[in-house]
Amino acid sequence: MSEISKEYGWDASMEISLYDKIRRDMKTAMVGKNILVRDTMRLIMGAFPSLTISITLESGKKTNRVKKPEEIIDDDILDIIRKFIKSEKTVLEFKKETTSDYMELLGCYLPRMATSQEISLWVKDNVDLSQFKSPMQAMGMVMKHFGKLADGNQVKEVLKNIHG
After folding, report:
1. What is the pLDDT of residues 51-86, one digit of tens each?
2. 88 in Cβ contact with 75 (< 8 Å)
3. For a tag site, which of 8, 106, 138, 145 has the least CB within 10 Å?
4. Domains of the chain, residue spans
5. Beta-strand runs (E) in the chain
6. Which helix (H) or strand (E) holds 102?
7. Residue 136 CA to its chain's centroid (Å)
């Protein structure tokens, strides 16, 4: 899997949109006959029609239309990838496995998650825990700051251990 993560994947510092990177990686995988990557990119691209924009017709009726390629933003695609990872975790739990090449490949396209140390440092620097009855009450504040870059269970553990 390690040779895949060097060649494939994406992060916001690259000079390319996630949409274009996925299309490029699919072409590279097709030329290199890498079936896992090719099929995974096809799955992601196959979900693009689920990305819609609400519109109001001249009649006043509200409806949705599929986003055009230039309207698809990185966050749209990241949400698709997160959904695939979530369903793969469910499958792996059922099989009593922890990871798969497919899940690792999908993970190469997500932003790096915050570490427990980073969360803990941010809380110490930015949250006055004395204003809360319990550190857990700061959960919303911490999640708002980190957004999708922190796992709720991970934040809960960090907060438990601060005074615990």
Report:
1. 999 999 999 999 999 999 999 999 999 999 999 999
2. no
3. 145
4. 2-107, 116-163
5. 52-56, 62-66
6. helix 101-107
7. 25
